[in-house]
Design brief:
Strand content: under 5%
Number of strands: 0
Order of helices and strands: HHHHHHHHHHHHHHHHHH
CATH architecture of the largest domain: Orthogonal Bundle
CATH class of the largest domain: Mainly Alpha
Radius of gyration: 22 Å
Number of domains: 2
Number of helices: 18
CATH superfamily of the largest domain: Hypothetical protein af1432
Largest sheet: none
Length: about 400
């Protein structure tokens, strides 16, 4: 993909006409005075970093459970990598870097312990009460569950930050009001009743670069972690032509690299090629649509910051490689089954006796709620747990806890 280097925003400080303007934000649900030293999007990013939800990410699993080793990614290290890539893309495209970084930093707040395994388990037990969706849970955290400010629950983020959080993967509704990926989670619909996030439109480019940065980051670091764990080998990477080409390139330039350096040289090239591909595609689509404002970006009816067709094929090939050799590996599946059992056991224990949720701030009011409301509170509590805390409380409540090693 060809890049227009003269159009890049590196070092210019210039914000493009189609970028989201922090000085023209749609504001917050609860009006606040502006800061004399920071834009509204800077304040959003800073509020996100100072949350308990952000701190908990350090003990939440990405792929490999914590006891597997200190060098594997966690939700926190993944989030930081996503934010770095999002900010690089935003700078190249002359977007608001603070908004892109903020969306990247908050995008995984709603994830449960034990990665997607925990999410699947919690969704299963909550199905009678509306199910569980980590994106909807992220919205609940930043609009309701974080309790830091005297004047409101949540973080009172700007409309643009909340839009990016909810719609970074695209619209949730068609123009006819149908769900684009199935029914819209009820927590999102409920919030939009009081603060409409316009679910049928695309998000601004800052959210779009955060979304594609997520894909780039986890594709790359799951390969890195897979090689470190032994579930992947360099021979397996040959199954993906793009990766085979990167390895050939590194071998031709460096003849005697140790495995760690060889892996890093592959990974840095992978990130670079994917980032450059997205920049090239975005530049071409911006020339095509000629948006004169962020509203034109929202109305474009397509994603602007995305992979080319060739890189999208590579992306799918990498995902298939990871599923075949890591995500569905018998060892990982055994650990996933144990993690799911922990989440399921804790849900039923807390539903039977909500007072067991000793640190939950609504614990004294839950017993009097109807079952769906009680289940949602239990879901909030479980989703907020770290891997280590979930294992510890399971050991306290049950005679046997699955071995997650």
């Amino acid at each position: 993909m060809t890049i227009d280097k003269e159009a890049l925003g590196f070092g210019s400080g210039e914000r493009a006409i189609y970028a989201t303007n922090p000085w023209a934000s749609r504001g917050r649900l609860f009006p606040e005075a502006s800061s004399p030293t920071r834009s509204d999007f800077q304040r959003d990013r800073d509020r996100i970093v100072h949350t308990t939800a952000f701190r908990r990410l350090k003990h939440k699993t990405q792929v490999f459970i914590g006891p597997d080793g200190d060098h594997y990614r966690t939700r926190l290290t993944h989030t930081i990598e996503v934010a770095q890539i999002a900010r690089a893309l935003a700078r190249a495209l002359k977007l608001d870097e603070d908004l892109a970084e903020g969306v990247a930093l908050v995008h995984d707040f709603g994830h449960t312990p034990f990665g997607h395994t925990g999410e699947d388990a919690l969704d299963e037990v909550l199905k009678p009460y509306g199910g569980f969706d980590h994106n909807a849970q992220s919205l609940r955290i930043v609009t309701k569950l974080e309790r830091r400010y005297a004047d409101f629950d949540g973080l009172n983020l700007t409309w643009e930050a909340l839009e990016g959080l909810v719609k970074h993967n695209g619209p949730l509704l068609t123009r006819e009001g149908e769900g684009t990926r199935g029914p819209v989670p009820q927590p999102i619909l409920d919030y939009c009743e009081i603060h409409d996030l316009e679910l049928a439109s695309f998000a601004g480019l800052e959210a779009q670069v955060a979304a594609i940065a997520d894909d780039i980051a986890y594709n790359t670091h799951d390969i890195d972690d897979g090689l470190r764990s032994g579930y992947l080998s360099f021979d397996m990477l040959e199954e993906v032509p793009f990766l085979a080409g990167l390895m050939r390139e590194v071998r031709e330039k460096y003849h005697h690299l140790d495995e760690d350096r060889f892996t890093h040289e592959i990974m840095r090239r992978q990130i670079t090629r994917m980032v450059e591909d997205v920049i090239g595609v975005a530049q071409e689509r911006l020339k095509q649509f000629k948006p004169q404002s962020v509203e034109d970006v929202r109305a474009a009816q397509t994603t602007i910051a995305t992979f080319s067709e060739a890189m999208a094929t590579t992306d799918q090939q990498i995902k298939k490689l990871l599923f075949r050799h890591i995500y569905r590996h018998p060892d990982i599946m055994r650990i996933r089954a144990g993690a799911a059992q922990i989440v399921t056991d804790l849900f039923h224990a807390y539903m039977a006796d909500p007072t067991l949720m000793k640190s939950h701030f609504w614990v004294n009011h839950i017993s009097g709620l109807n079952t769906p409301a009680k289940a949602r509170h239990v879901g909030d509590y479980l989703a907020g747990m770290t891997d280590t805390y979930a294992v510890r409380v399971h050991r306290e409540l049950f005679d046997r806890t699955p071995d997650l090693r």
